[in-house]
């Protein structure tokens, strides 16, 4: 995930319990087509006040630009790619037009097998495609002390899947935010509110080509 750790020992995974959630519940009366932000604590908005997650900032910018979409935050703190597979059906039930898939970072931080991460991400992409949603895959990296071979194989997962599944890719989800102390929380893993605003800008660059100004 996040190249902001300078410690020499192997860092531990985020401390949030895998079942914790900071997910926004959408209003049923809102008939706008849905963009699902599907991810872990980086999507959920861990450590910031409600309304200051990256999906919140993304919604505000979409509204400002005249896009008639509703962003639904389906981030769960501590979630892995395996956890994402287990809850795909709940996301599909929202009938999303687009899914922003941000998972896998916790797999890497915990040293889970790269092939398992790849398989889980592929299963999620396939499930969302079968449901008629476009998927924007978010690339990740790991702290440098995880070793160059493991980091390379981890990063390659996202690039290879994007090519294989013909899915647009955000090359690095925390581009311009990771490793900046003024934009990261003290844990060096999660962005501040200002950092989340910049993450939303980064994601929107790759999301916007998938959107229509007046979706039917």
Main β sheet profile: 5 strands, parallel
Integer-rounded radius of gyration = 16 Å
CATH level-3 fold name: Rossmann fold
Strand content: 5-15%
How many angstroms does the end-to-end distance come to? 36 Å
Overall pLDDT metric: 89
CATH architecture title? 3-Layer(aba) Sandwich
Number of beta-strand segments: 5
Which outline best applies? Answer: globular
How many structural units, i.e. domains? 1
Question: Uncertain regions: pLDDT < 50 for 5+ in a row?
Answer: 1-26
Strand order of the largest sheet: 2-1-3-4-5
Structural class: alpha/beta
Helix content: 25-40%
- At the fourth CATH level, what is the homologous superfamily? SGNH hydrolase
Order of helices and strands: EHHEHHEHHEHEH
* Count of runs of 4 or more consecutive helical residues: 8
CATH class: Alpha Beta
What topology emerges from the helices and strands here?
Layout: E1 34-39, H1 41-44, H2 54-65, E2 70-75, H3 81-86, H4 88-92, E3 98-102, H5 105-109, H6 114-130, E4 134-138, H7 148-164, E5 169-170, H8 193-207
Parallel strand pairs: 1-2, 1-3, 3-4, 4-5
Helix pairs in contact: 2-8, 6-7
């Amino acid at each position: 995930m996040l190249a902001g750790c300078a410690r020499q020992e192997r860092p531990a995974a985020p401390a949030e319990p895998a079942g914790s959630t900071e997910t926004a519940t959408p209003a049923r009366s809102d008939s706008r087509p849905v963009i699902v932000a599907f991810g872990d604590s980086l999507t959920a908005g861990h450590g910031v006040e409600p309304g200051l997650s990256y999906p919140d900032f993304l919604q505000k910018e979409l509204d400002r630009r005249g896009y008639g979409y509703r962003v639904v935050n389906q981030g769960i703190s501590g979630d892995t790619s395996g956890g994402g597979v287990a809850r795909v059906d709940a996301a599909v039930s929202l009938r999303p037009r687009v899914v922003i898939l941000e998972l896998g970072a916790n797999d890497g931080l915990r040293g889970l097998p790269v092939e398992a991460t790849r398989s889980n991400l592929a299963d999620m992409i396939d499930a969302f495609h079968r449901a008629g949603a476009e998927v924007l895959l978010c690339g990740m990296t790991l702290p440098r002390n995880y070793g160059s071979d493991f980091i390379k194989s981890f990063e390659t997962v996202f690039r290879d899947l994007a090519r294989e599944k013909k899915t647009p890719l955000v090359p690095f989800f925390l581009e311009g935010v990771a490793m900046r102390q003024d934009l990261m929380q003290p844990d060096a893993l999660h962005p501040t509110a200002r950092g989340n605003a910049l993450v939303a800008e980064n994601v929107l660059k790759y999301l916007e080509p998938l959107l229509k100004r007046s979706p039917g």
